[in-house]
Amino acid sequence: MAKKLNAGDMFPELTVNIRGGTFNVRDNLEARYNIILLYRGHW
Fold it and tell me: Considering only CA atoms, which of 37, 41, 42, 32 is closest in space to residue 14?
């Protein structure tokens, strides 16, 4: 398990596959505050 992020920590490198393409989360965190919600779906 990855370590918990604390205030001021850099978001880790995370690229997800979306509809045949890729999306790099860290490259798209442009606002001062961001909320990242990951839903795994069916277990």
Answer: 37
Measure the CA–CA gap between 1 and 26, rounded to whole angstroms. Answer: 19
The model carries a pTM of 0.50
User: Smallest Cα–Cα separation from 36: which of 12, 17, 20?
Assistant: 12
For residue range 7-34, what is the model confidence (pLDDT) as tens digits?
888 888 889 888 889 989 888 888 888 8
Residue length, the chain?
A: 43
How wide is the angle at C-alpha 15 spanned by C-alphas 10 and 20, nearest 5°? 160
Type of residue numbered 42: H
Nearest one of 37, 39, 41, 34 to 10, comparing CA atoms = 34
